[in-house]
Specification:
about 70 residues, two-stranded antiparallel sheet, 4 helices, about 65% helix
C-alpha cells in the first residue's frame, strides 16, 4: 500500500511541475465553458456552461454515457 501512495505522490508532483511549465500544452489550452480574458484570467462562458451543467445533471440522473452522448448530438 505504501508503494502506491509513494507512486501517487511522485506522479502528482510531476504533474504539478509540468503544469507550472510555460510550454505545457495541457495547461495552456482553452477549457470548454471558459473564456480567457485579456489579463489571462478565466471567465465562465455561460452558453457553453449550460451544456456542462446539462451533462452533469444527466450523469447525476444516472443516464448512461451513451444516452448523454445521444442527447448532446441532438
Amino acid at each position: 500500500m505504501t508503494n502506491y501512495i509513494n507512486k501517487s505522490n511522485v506522479i502528482t508532483e510531476g504533474l504539478r511541475k509540468t503544469f507550472q511549465s510555460t510550454d505545457c500544452k495541457m495547461a495552456n489550452r482553452r477549457c470548454y465553458s471558459y473564456d480567457i480574458l485579456p489579463n489571462g484570467n478565466l471567465t465562465v462562458n455561460q452558453t457553453e456552461a449550460e451544456v456542462v451543467r446539462w451533462i452533469f445533471k444527466r450523469y447525476l440522473a444516472r443516464d448512461s454515457f451513451g444516452k448523454i452522448a445521444a442527447g448532446l448530438e441532438k
